Amino acid sequence: MTVIIDGKKISSEIREEIKQKVEELKKKYNAVPGLAVVLVGDDPASAVYVKMKGKGCEEVGIRSFQHILPGSTSKEELLSLIDKLNNDKSVNGILVQLPLPDHIHENDIINAISPDKDIDGFHPVNTGKMVADVDCFYPCTPAGIQELIYRYVKDLKGKHVVVVGRSNIVGKPVANMMLQKNERANCIVTVCHTAARDISVYTKQADILVVAAGRANTITGDMIKEGAVVIDVGVNRITDPSDSSKTKIVGDVDFESTAAKASAITPVPGGVGPMTIAMLLFNTVKAFELHNK
Ligand code: NAP
Question: Is the Cβ atom of 190 under 6 angstroms away from ligand 1?
């Protein structure tokens, strides 16, 4: 029987633990962690994500500060807000929702966030620390992926993890994290991307396959080994095959054929997605503890 890894359930267990932690911190410091979320422009998907992050904070007792700016905001104006948030003691974490409008270069903004408030884990200081295996803020989606893998596969030592995708947001950090020498990793890691002539040469070798390609049906059942654990990171909106007037969200993996061969698989939606916000809340609490040390 294939296990469907329930990211929603695991995420809500983690949120409950975070809620209790926030209550303890409130008693100890007479203060609660604060997360500032900055949205520039009116991209509907980003607006939904920002709303979900605010709701997630509220549920666990984290203070949420939302800064919704018009798409015409200049880089200087945004940098000035980041500077203010960097110096605001009630703000422990700063998240700038990506993508930004074309006239603002993402790296200019990410690099301006104080590394000790970079709860998204995108600042080069945190990236460098992650690669060097020094305590830092891990990027939220890769941290959620690792948590799902660790909860399902207890003995990870020597397992072959194959990652499809090499983005800075998902593929590269997941690969780095699963390579570390600790009980949540210690894996043999292969990363493949569009330069591979045939990715199935690699994916068929995976004990654990992480797919972050951003394309529906990148992986089908014939491309995996019997009994593999499959983590589908993709979020793709496609025309609903059963009703062409509607759309639906699918992952990067053809669920039916892959689930028939896998020992465990994450669904889309309800797999990796819910874990991302749980890890964001986790990192915000971590930042609060760091600031109150
Ligand atoms: P991205 O920046 O577009 O990167 C995609 C990567 O996949 C690239 O490295 C690309 O290779 C590789 N790739 C694409 N098609 C491939 C193929 N057929 N064979 C091999 N490699 C292939 O995407 P991303 O930001 O990493 O996101 C990946 C997916 O995860 C997207 O669907 C995104 O929406 C989703 N996502 C979900 C969450 C969540 O919370 N659930 C969070 C972040 C992202 P090249 O480098 O050679 O181009």
Answer: no
